[in-house]
Amino acid sequence: MRVDLIRALLIGGPDVPSLHETGLRLGGVWISGGLDLEGCRIGRDIGLVDCRFEYQPVLRSASRQNEPKRVPSTITTISAISALTTAAMTISR
Fold first, then answer.
1. How many Å apart are CA 87 and CA 18, to the nearest integer?
2. 3-16, pLDDT tens digit by residue?
């Protein structure tokens, strides 16, 4: 799956369908490209179970839209990442 599609679904836009209220859930997906969500305000949860990234994702200062800036958000079960650049983010396994 391309990161531009994931980013569009998470950030939204005029021509992008709304996400389900439970957020974005992907399992066992190869994510191609560099996912850069630095400083983004994301409206829904992100669940990435057993996903693999082509490049290290950047999540520095990313936050949930309904939470104050820099309050931890959750990304669930990310695997096969050599390193993760993040601040104010909770990674659960």
1. 27
2. 998 888 888 777 88
